[in-house]
């Protein structure tokens, strides 16, 4: 791609709208918050297109979306009146998995609910890994945390998910 | 979990389990992890359990945007799609500036009821003034600009 091929918002919406909405929905867990998040991404895309590096548009969109999501999480944490749906007390504590049936089925709606119950930082790492398909290095760069932190958040997030769905 | 620990005495894999599933371990680490798994029922169980969660999330279907959602965004201008709470904050900050300016000039603070609609009109006029720019967003801190530089 050359600089003349920097994507417009119209192209993003047309060709990557469903992807973008999916990432926003898996991060936020609701239609209303997903819509708000996509609109925030629109604002950031319009301001930040010059930082676009050709070649991985969906990775770039995912990074903007995740950072906008975590910024909003931090904003709400500073204003405790607005309770987050993912308050820590809603998170199922990890338990040993020795008695877990390993061939269990889970409905997508239940998996999505369990994902929404994860702490936001874990959820962001799991979504970038298992929904977007980023490598740990890409997630580390996107979230600006060390690779070891990425590894820990993904592993603990999955362990919490598995417990919640048992 | 010492009762279920590995026979070779090596440390449990911990979050290496996830990295193993994701292909994020180097070849020597993979070999060491597999040696450990061969003698450690607890980590073998953990691998299967976390692998199940991984497969579930990866199997989630795409989420369809509501009909007309993106079309609606495309036909509106940026100022129209700023989330409502941000617009409220923008109005609040403008109102605070007006009050502060009044205080600096030694004037009585403006009455709340006549000021609020005027501020609203001010913001709307400001938002509609520039065609190419995003004047309203410049009033609103929306986080650190995203950059690909480290």
Write a compact overview of the structure shown.
Chain A is an all-alpha fold and 166 residues long. Chain A has seven helices and no strands.
List the helices and strands and how they pair.
The complex is a heterodimer of chains A (166) and B (150).
Chain A: H1 9-28, H2 31-48, H3 57-78, H4 108-116, H5 120-132, H6 136-143, H7 147-164
Helix pairs in contact in A: 1-2, 1-3, 2-3, 3-5, 3-6, 5-7, 6-7
Chain B: H1 16-21, H2 27-38, H3 41-58, H4 69-75, H5 78-81, H6 84-104, H7 112-129, H8 135-139
Helix pairs in contact in B: 6-7
Task: Characterise the protein shown here.
The complex is a heterodimer of chains A (166) and B (150). Chain A has helices spanning 9-28, 31-48, 57-78, 108-116, 120-132, 136-143, 147-164. With 166 residues, chain A is an all-alpha fold. Chain A has one domain: PhyR, sigma-like (SL) domain (Butyryl-CoA Dehydrogenase, subunit A, domain 3, Up-down Bundle). In chain A, helix 3 (57-78) packs antiparallel against helix 5 (120-132), helix 5 (120-132) packs across helix 7 and helix 6 packs across helix 7. The longest helix of chain A has 22 residues, at 57-78. Chain B has two domains: 2-58, no CATH class; 78-139, no CATH class. Chain B is built from eight helices and no strands. In chain B, helix 6 (84-104) crosses helix 7 (112-129). The longest helix of chain B has 21 residues, at 84-104. The chains are: A mainly alpha (166), B mainly alpha (150). At the A-B interface, helix 1, helix 2, helix 3, helix 4 and helix 5 of A face helix 1, helix 3 and helix 4 of B.
List keywords for this structure.
heterodimer, A: 166 residues, mainly alpha, Butyryl-CoA Dehydrogenase, subunit A, domain 3, globular, B: 150 residues, 8 helices, 61% helix, elongated, disordered C terminus
